[in-house]
User: What shape does this take?
Amino acid sequence: MEQRDRAMRRIEQVLEMQVSPSSAYPIRARLGRAMHEVIRWAEASDEELPLELTWLQAVRGRAEWIVQPSEPFDVRWQREWDAALADLQIIYNALTERSDAGTPRVTR
Amino acid sequence: MRSEVWLYGSVARGTYTAMSDLDLLVVPNLGPEERPEVAALIRGLPQVSRTSITVYSWQQLATMAAYGSLFLVHLGAEARILYGEGVGDGLADVVAGMPQYSRAGHDLWGFMQALTDVEESLLGGGDPNYELGVVATVVRHCSILTTYLGGSPVFDRERSIANAFALVGQEESVPMALELHKFRMARLKRTNVGNASPESALKRTRTAMDFVGEVETRYGAA
Assistant: This one.
């Protein structure tokens, strides 16, 4: 699986999961993994990314805060969830467009 | 309204290292006039790698208390108050008389789902070091829950893992479970632990799945 495809698949795994108190735990882990794979792709890629790497790193930073293990599993994670989901959708859309457009050179 | 600041985690237990976090609970947000006093109190605490501040409202804590939140059990077991001002019930009142934790079944499902995701990621070319950090987190949380379900909750990482694996008869996996922690630290603190192979990561993930599966078998109906 290509790195970009892997990143997209990990984002899909977050977006497709029903958010509920019982799914909070695995969905937070999925969010962390999705951002890890996005950054992994962005840092290793020769492709031009339609989103700033620094912004992606900031999203990852916020995601890490949401998923950090010292946080309890309940009300806390929900606070930033909507914002994280919106960021993730932006990234997914950008990756989808990039998949359709081919692979130009990177700018960072 | 009452304001409180509580210290919990390894610093509260006295088991911290230089790599530990300073874990603080603040309820609710402090007013500007309270902050200098609290900042001075925090400066007097041991210097560790990072300060992690969790802020809750009293209403949120009441919601969590209604289902016997393990986080509140954790606080009730080891937290130390640093600061308290104002009138009204405090954390000790919230924790007192909480019911038994009622979400163990959900948590166990979540742990297994998270490990299943790790397995899928590893089989699909995911990053073994990252995934082992996830496994470490799941094992830690499942261990705490297991000791709670076993009747003697333990929140210290090493003791909870040792006790939990013993409770389900998997003592031989304790060294592996403890060693996972370095991958979590590598992710959080950017330390270097070398590269785990996908095969060894998969093996350790499946050992963790065996552990969670056995906890489900023994305590899943709790």
About this structure: Chain B has a mean pLDDT of 92.
